[in-house]
Amino acid sequence: MKIDRFRSVWGIAPGPNMDHWAQWFPELKAQGYSGVEVDIHPLEPSRDFPRLRELCNQTGLEIGLMIHSSWFMYVGPRPAGTKAEHHLQNYRRLLESVQQLNPSTINFQSGEDLWDVEESIKFYKGTLQIDSELGISGRVYHETHRNRSLFTPYATRRILEAVPELRITADFSHWMVGCERVLDVSEGDKAMMDAIIPHVYHIHARIGTTQASQCPEPTNPVFKEEKECFERTWKSVIRSRAKDGATTRIVFVPEYGPFPYHPIGSAKTHSQIADEEGQRLQVLFNDFAATLKDA
């Protein structure tokens, strides 16, 4: 299998005419990134989408997208009373608008945490229908993210039981802090994660802790328990996807963000942590995948 690394642009301003990104993207390519993951909501489509496509064509980087189904960029108070139909209208409109970018991956922060499970199931069944109609089935992944329908492993498992075709992005840092525990220790938690992992097709590889969604020093021994939990879980995802065959590919994103995710006074910037973790995990994941071929 092929394991590729995309760089989140979170916290890195594009600059006028994306000139900052134009200087930065070749550096990312030189570091071994295969693509960039970009939040579309700060961008102006008619102006910025062609420029982004141009930059990525010039540097040989693929485009991954991050999209919200509602409450874009989390600006202002959460919109009240929005249901599945509202989110589905946004979902279709936004997917249609990004077709010109020819994205390799599309990550959605979707749904709402206050919905009952039945409303979330209705929504996700609708997303699969839209994916099919737009000819992008299998290319959209829904993130395990706080504020959203997949905000806990318990809700996620129930949704996946009802919508087994749904593909998800694993950002398990949200679950670890939300549940306040390492999630592969108890037998009940192991069984829950084992049921969810086969549905993961995209990884946001950020190490969190039981008290924070982002670890400021992932290799510091004080975070050993959390680090090892995440690495075991990500390897389980790779093992699951390897069953799809030798030509399968999975993308991981070392998605470390700025303050307030990254603590003030940290020894390194969030950008340094992202690049260091990306390189470390690329080796770890490739070495692990090689053992699966030999098994």
UniProtKB/TrEMBL annotation:
InterPro entries: Xyl_isomerase-like_sf (IPR036237), Xyl_isomerase-like_TIM-brl (IPR013022)
Record domain Xylose isomerase-like TIM barrel: where: 27-205
Protein name, UniProt field: Pc21g08500 protein
Organism field: Penicillium rubens (strain ATCC 28089 / DSM 1075 / NRRL 1951 / Wisconsin 54-1255) (Penicillium chrysogenum)
